[in-house]
Amino acid sequence: MTLTxxxxxxxxxxxxxxxxxxxxxxxxxxxxxxxGHLYAYYKPAQLMVTRSDSDAVYRWNNFDSLAGKAAIIDYxxxxxxxxxxxxxxxxxxxxxxxxxxPMTAGQLTGNYAxxxxxxxxxxxxxxxxSQRVHTIFHFDANDKIDRIMQYLDRVPINAAMAK
Length: 163
Description:
The chain is an alpha+beta fold. The chain contains 3 helices and 11 strands; from the N terminus they run βββαββββαββββα. It has helices at 30-35, 69-83, 154-161, and strands at residues 2-6, 13-17, 25-26, 38-39, 47-51, 57-60, 65-67, 84-99, 110-123, 128-139, 145-151.
């Protein structure tokens, strides 16, 4: 059976080769809980992106970045398939912010959602790591996410990935 779905903004769509699972996960963040979103988990090989926006940018605090949703999707699919066995998120805190006037060159005006959370990951190497991560989402004029900036410590990640 093929399941079809799209992200909350509708700019990205995908198909899943599989059945609807018996159990779903309820996200308790402020965005999802207001909308009653439920999540299911599938293997990356079961996911086929059928429509994706190409104007998104994903940045890390070490100045690496990915441009285009296809590149972002490919990166995370590869991480989940080849690098990470399992990952969980907890203790999330969300803060909405509206920037009317940039304080630094290059800063975008508009709406942001700042998030702090703990991520725990088990890697294919058999090693695990846990750390607090700070992620910033920027929303364009149509309230669609167009920038994601993530601040994390690469040291525990690199140690967990080392063979």
